[in-house]
Amino acid sequence: MSEAGQPPKISMRNVKKSFGTKKVLNGIDLDVEKGESCVIIGGSGTGKSVTLKCVLGLIRPDSGSIKIDGSEVTEMDNDDRDEVMSKFGMLFQGGALFDSLPVWENVAFGLIHGRKMDREEAHEIALQKIEAVGMGRQVGSLYPAELSGGMQKRIGLARAIAGNPEIIFFDEPTTGLDPIMADVINDLIAKCVKDLGATALSITHDMASARKIADKITMIHEGKLIWTGSVKELDNSGNEYVDQFIHGRAEGPITKHANMA
Amino acid sequence: MSFFATVGQFSAFAGLSVSHVFRGPFFPKNFSKQIVSIGYYSLPVVGLTTFFTGMVLALQSYTGFTRFNAESAIASVVALSITRELAPVLAGLMVAGRVGASIAAEIGTMRVTEQIDALRTLSVNPFKYLVVPRLIAGTLTLPILVLIGDLIGIMGGYIVSVHVLGFSAGSYLSQSWDVLQPIDVISGLAKAAVFGFIVTIMGCYHGFNSGRGAQGVGAATTNAVVTSSILILVFNYILTQVFFS
Questions:
Q1: Interchain proximity A159–B123, CB inside 8 Å
Q2: Which residues of B are less than 8 Å from A99 in CB distance?
Q3: Cys-Cys crosslink for B133: which of A89, A230, B23, B30, Cβ 3.0 to 4.6 Å?
Q4: Contact A96 B117 (CB under 8 A)
Q5: HEC string for chain B
Q6: pLDDT by residue (tens digit) across A96-133?
Q7: Chain A interface residues (partner B, CB cutoff 8 A)
Q8: Which domains does chain A have, with CATH numbers?
């Protein structure tokens, strides 16, 4: 618990997870304070996604503690879990839009089914959120398959923020987008998180995105967080793993280690 | 060992699914959509299958029975085989191919594209939203399909007997009607309900546990059809034993 008396919004302690004999998370410790935007960077297969899914409750860790607002979530029953879930919004890597439903119903899905809101009311909120991510209201009646990748990401963002979540998760928000659309998404993320006053936890390997949306950056390598600091400190981290990653060098301790293993 | 692990995993999945059948919230819109896609759209394929089976049964039993001057038994053979065995089993197998495959492919694709995770982050239980409507729709509509299949199959036998083999229409119908006991039809419908459950639960199970990518979804679809077809034949034997011995 911090000195102000408020527990961190997200607190992970010694979280471990293996799949078969492969140790994916090897003791993750992370605190994200209320209103803070934390970005986890790291290469593919280092445990970024698994970390995010453990916090979300989509994967149950083998051991360790995960607290949301000070309450332990790893051993919650389903009803309490649902209550915690209602604080969350999540932008999936591929959008994960429901292709059987029109765009507006995708955005309104959590409101209609999770919060039992009246359809008319949810429809109106959905259209407002679609406008908030810079698209016209008429997009609401299209189907996800009719949208481009960038538009799907924006609708995914609209769905993530529709329930005014306290914590928003972003899984590789700019992957697969052209540089300009990536920047549009980054701006939208920064704006939405600020407007909602939400806490954000993102994973990415796109450094431009990380620099733009993060207050705090932490690097994961082989299932452990090996460096944490502010965006300003990133270029003088003094950590050769971080240096190799942010400059995208093929040669360095990360690859050397991987080749030996 | 891995066989038992799979059986255990499946049992847990089925138990969890059934437990959600009795606990809300329910999704009536999804349910009615599934009734249409599982029941209504399977009508042509079930109708055609039972129609031609009834026809061929009449033709074949005629060839056999003329040797013993027992042509009059054709109506009974058609009516009994269709209602007790062929309509439920063939409808079950056709629906396994049509519906089981599409359920596994749809849910598998939703798994692969993280739509199932997305449901959970939106506080909607994927069992209640995806599995329960399909399970109930499958278990309720297959008996209805089989009842219609019974009628169409007997009609197929009638058409061949009366128009090809030259039997009298009145005696064929009265023979069919006389030989049929309620248990013949009821056992067939009970089988159909079980087969409907098998097809939908297998589709959902394999879809939920689909591997990654196009190959994973393809394998899930194949497994759903193969396992549900085999289970239909196994349970057909077990249920026949229960009803008629």
A1: no
A2: 115
A3: B30
A4: yes
A5: CHHHHHHHHHHHHHHHHHHHHCCCCCCHHHHHHHHHHHHHHHHHHHHHHHHHHHHHHHHHHHHHHHCCCCHHHHHHHHHHHHHHHHHHHHHHHHHHHHHHHHHHHHHHHHHHCCHHHHHHHCCCCHHHHHHHHHHHHHHHHHHHHHHHHHHHHHHHHHHHHHHHCCCCHHHHHHHHHHHCCHHHHHHHHHHHHHHHHHHHHHHHHHHHCCCCHHHHHHHHHHHHHHHHHHHHHHHHHHHHHHHHC
A6: 999 999 999 999 999 998 888 999 999 999 999 999 88
A7: 53, 56-58, 78, 82, 85-86, 88-90, 92-94, 96-99, 109-110, 113-115, 159, 163, 169
A8: 1-85+203-261 (3.40.50.300)
